[in-house]
Every structure is written in structure tokens, then in C-alpha cells.
Amino acid sequence: MSISWPAKKTNPKALEDRARSELDSARHAEAVVPMRTSRKRKRSVDATEELLRVRSEIERDLNIACPEYSEFVTSLRRFASGRLSSLSNQVLGVVSARGGEGRTTVALALAAALSEMHQKVIYVECDSGDSSNLLSQMGEARVEGLSEWLGGDSNLNAAIYETGAGQLFVLPYGKTAVRSTPLETVSRMRILFDRLRGMFDVVVVDMPAVLTNEGTPALMKELDNILLVVGANQTTSAEVEETVRLCGYIPVSGIFLNKLTYSAPEWIMSLVSPGLGRVTP
Prior knowledge:
- There is one protein chain.
- By secondary structure, the chain is of the alpha/beta class.
- It has a domain at about 85-280: 3-Layer(aba) Sandwich (Rossmann fold).
- Helix content is about 45%, strand content about 15%.
- The chain contains ten helices and eight strands.
- It has an eight-stranded mixed beta sheet, with helices on both faces.
- Helix 10 (about 235-245) links the parallel strand 6 and strand 7 (about 250-260).
- The longest helix is centred in the N-terminal third of the chain and has 29 residues, at about 35-65.
- The protein starts with 11 loop residues before the first helix and ends with a strand.
């Protein structure tokens, strides 16, 4: 899925360059803090306000350059407030029949929308099919993530990252290949979901494609709710029916028809995570 930029006067490349520059400046201001506590606190507050200001400007410019994106976010927010605002300590899986239907973008935007309604929301990147995962897109040098936790090489707190969005946290996939069997992985994921339910109000899981990943149907049985993403003019009705059938007894909260033609520039991730930081134990 990728955003197709309208033929307007706004230059997407210039917009991207300005966004990167302003975000870098805002992060630098947050990193350079004086030693004295009172000044450090004030500088930290100033830096947070600057990040929020930059994030607001980027989103405003993006909405002008690409009205499709604005409609997309508005639809997701409406769905979240109408269907998901009452969720409590539940795991919501975002699934699609196949890859390339916009599942990841929907999951990220949905997690951001839910974080405006709940105190603590986490986005879990479960799909390793895209070589450009969340850690690499955000330029993170650290390697702790879901795959490291599954392999026993990282504790959970080290694999969870805070974001500049306040109530939103992320658990990226990581950089280590998972060598366990699908059955062993599902067993470990069951433990993970139980722990995350106790830590967060809502857990949004970006699941691997249902019809092309043999472990996904078994993993779906560990979810509390499911949102099915259907790419407009991509998924056949037979594929949708088969995906719903494989959901079994897990409630399907809705089917999101994704009309975006999507290939988002990497800096769009900054709207969700304008600065990652490790969660302290």
C-alpha cells in the first residue's frame, strides 16, 4: 500500500526534506540538555513541545499534499471511537488475506488513534515479511525487538520502546531470525500477549498475512478481537471469506476497506513515533 501524491503545487520531496530537517533539529534540542536539574526539566519540556509542534506541522502539510491520507486517518479514528473505545486489556489483531493490502499502515494509524482514547497502547510488529522493518525505518541502532525476546536474547522491557506520542509504545520485530517451530512460536506469543494485557489497555498486533503464512491461523486464536484489512481492487471475495473463516470464534470487530494506493515515504513513521526511547523496567 502506498500514498500516490496528487498533482499539486506542493512538492513531496521538498516536504520530506523539510520534515526530516525539522525532526532532526527537534530531536537534537531534546538531546542537548544542561546539567542543572531545573534547567534540564525546562529544556526537556521545551523539546517535547517542539516535537509536538513539528509533528503537527508535518501532519498538516501531509493532509494538504495528500487529501487521501486525511480521509484515511479520519475513517480510522471514527472506527476506533465507535467500535474500540471500550476495549480494556485486550489484544486486537490487524490481519489481511495477503501482503500489500495496507495492513501495517492501518495498524500503525489505528494504534495512534487508540492512544488518544486510552492511557497506554502498544503496537506490536509481528510480520517480518518486509525487510524494511520498524527499527530500520526509524534508524534505531539497538537490536532488541520481538524476535530477540522470542529467542530468549532480550527481556521484554528492553524490547519495548516509548514514542513521542505519549501513551503510544511500540514493540518492533527486531533483527534476529526466529528459529523456533511455528508451534513453539505460538506458545511464546501466548505468554507475550498475556503479559502485554497486564501492561497495556490495548495491544494492537500487526499480524502476518493469513493466507500466505502457515503460523498465522494458529496465532489468531490467541487474539481477543480482529480487524480485517481489505485492499480495494486487490482482494477477491473468496479470499475475504476464507480469511473470515480462519478467524474462527474470535470476534471480527470490522472490515476496513483500504482505498489508499500506498507506498509511504519512511518519514511518515514520524507521525506515529517522532522519537523512540527505551522503556525502563
